Amino acid sequence: MTTIDSGILLPSGRTDEQRMIAAEVERIATAAGAADRPHRAAWDALAETGLHAVLLEEELAAGSAELVLIAEGLGRALCADAFVWGGVAVPTLLAALPSAEAAALARRIAGGELATIAMHGPEADVETIGSTLVVVETDAGATVSGRAWFVPFGEDADAVVVLARRGEELVVALVDEGQEGVAWEALAPFDLGSSPAHVRFESASATILGAVPAQPAELLAPTLLCQGAAVVGSATQALLDATGYSRIRVQFGVPIGDFQAIRHRLAEMLVEVELMRSAIAAADGGAHGVLTAAYHCLAAAPAIMRGNIQIHGGIGYTWEHSAHRHFRYAYSSRQAVCSFESLERVLMAALTGQGR
After folding, report:
1. In whole angstroms, how far apart are CA 312 and each of 226, 301, 316?
2. Which class in CATH covers the domain with range 216-353?
3. What CATH architecture applies to the domain 11-110?
4. DSSP letter, residue 37
5. Mind listing the pLDDT tens digit for each residue in 280-323?
């Protein structure tokens, strides 16, 4: 992986600690990117250093620069998803649930366990989170029934956090690995490094962690921000790959980077990458600003990935080259945390509600 001394935060704006984090994440990403299960390998390596649990430290807020730095660095090697879900999405939920059970799961995550979230119906819309899952409480305990689509990591996760309906209420429940009444259906992923799965619960025993205290879009905002940062990392690597290839690929006796059409395309890609970085860096602490920044990154990324493929020419279309991996990641990220279309609807509703 080519070293680049820039990131979502400008180098002059980084503290010494953030520079150390960026260097360590680059080392982890380089090793994990070559592993058979890159997301799990990245998570295990982060757990050895403690970086997987930065959000569980009280002094760090959701959306902090450290989270963004880690997500961007891992995104360059296409191995950020375990951190986005296990290190950001689940801890964000747990922080909103002041219960002993939630605190116990947070300690397990700090110890290195990887937790994922089951919450979506077949359309993965943020407006319908938990609608296909039901929690029932009896004297014998709580159970979860129903089906969730596109659960990250599937059986590779150590625990599954479930967002389900309890009457009109949206609650968070925990189903541990190996629990009876849980059936996984592994999927062939579009992003080749991931391992999503559908899951069906049939009266599976669960631990209630608490009721969701806010709108799902607000709770998912830090996760979407880090997903956007990971896409920025992937786009940055795609730009570096395209630029490097344009210097060594010779046509008609000169490097193809000397041709105006290639120069213009690379310049357009650079502008888009910098705008994506700026959007993430400028995202304020409010959910609306964070969602807007994430939306911009997810919308802009595919054009950069296509440019990388096209500048590489024939080799860019081969299975062995990494260009299609970045292309796949750009599109799979648009459906990872929630569907791109539902994110667009949430933002549009917020804008029209403000009279814009």
Report:
1. 29, 17, 5
2. mainly alpha
3. Orthogonal Bundle (1.10)
4. S
5. 988 876 788 899 999 999 999 999 999 999 999 999 989 899 99
